[in-house]
Amino acid sequence: MNNIKTNVRGKAIKYGDNVDTDVIIPARYLNTSDKKELASHCMEDLDKNFTKIVRVGDLMVAGKNFGCGSSREHAPIAIKESGISLVIAKSFARIFYRNAINIGLPIIECPEAAEEIESGDEVGMDFDSGVIYNFTKNKTYTAAPFPPFIQSIITAGGLINAVKSDMFGER
Predict the structure, then answer these.
(1) DSSP 34-60
(2) According to the model, what pLDDT value does residue 166 have?
(3) pLDDT at 171
(4) Dihedrals φ, ψ of 126, to 5°?
(5) How far apart are CA 61 and CA 5, in angstroms?
(6) Which class for 30: exposed (0-12), middle (13-18), buried (19 or more C-beta within 10 A)?
(7) What is the pLDDT of residue 3?
(8) How far apart are the first and last CA of the chain?
(9) What is the predicted pLDDT for the residue at 167?
C-alpha cells in the first residue's frame, strides 16, 4: 500500500462535530491579513497544541458541519498556512466549503473516513480517483473525486490565481 499514488499524504489531526470558524481562527486575530500570523493562532481556542504538532503535509479530519459560523475567509487561510494539505470531514458548512476551495485548500466529504481515521494515522488521498488511504490501518475509503475545474483551482493555489492563469497564461 505504500507505493500508491497520492496528491497529499501526512499524519491526521482529528476534531469532532461543529468546529466553527471562531475556534479555527478566533475573532481577536481578524485584524491581520498576514497568513503566517493567522496560522500561528489556528485552532488555539480548541487545541492549544495544534501549532506545536502540525507539520507541513498533515491532514485535518473532523465530524459534521466543519467550518460553521461566520463566513470569514481567514479560517481556511489559517488552516492552509499552518501546513494542512487536506481536510476530510463528514460534512462542511457551505460557505466554508466555498472559501476553502477559493483559497486552494482541498477539502473532501467522506463520512466513513472521518469516522474511522484517528489522530496520528498516516493518511493520503488521490484527487483523481477520490480514494482516501489510511496507511496505518491498511484501509481505503471512496469519496467523490474533485472535478477537474476544482483540481485546477487547487493546483493554482486558489481561484484568483486560476483566473489569472486562464486570462494571462501564467501557469
Answers:
(1) -HHHHHTTTTTTT-TTHHHH--TT-EE
(2) 66
(3) 46
(4) -100, 110
(5) 20
(6) middle
(7) 76
(8) 33
(9) 65
Query: Cβ of 39: how many Cβ atoms within 10 Å?
Result: 21
Residue 156 CA to residue 141 CA, distance in Å, equals 26
Cell of 43: 485552532
SS (H, E, C) 58-106: CEEEECCCECECCCCCHHHHHHHHHCCCEEEECCECHHHHHHHHHCCCC
| Residue 21 cell numbers, joined | 470558524
Q: Which residues of the chain have pLDDT under 50?
A: 171
Question: What pLDDT is stored for residue 7 in this prediction?
Answer: 92
What own/partner pairs with CB < 8 Å and gap ≥ 24 does 135-143 have? 135/1, 135/2, 135/9, 138/1, 141/110, 141/112, 141/113, 141/116, 142/110, 143/88, 143/108, 143/109, 143/110, 143/113
Instruction: Please state the pTM of the whole predicted model.
Output: 0.93
All three cell numbers of 58: 498533515
The reported pLDDT for the residue numbered 52 is 97
User: What single letter denotes the amino acid at residue 9?
Assistant: R
Structure confidence at residue 2 (pLDDT): 60
What's the CA gap between 27 and 10, in Å, rounded? Answer: 29
Q: How far apart are CA 77 and CA 124, in angstroms?
A: 21
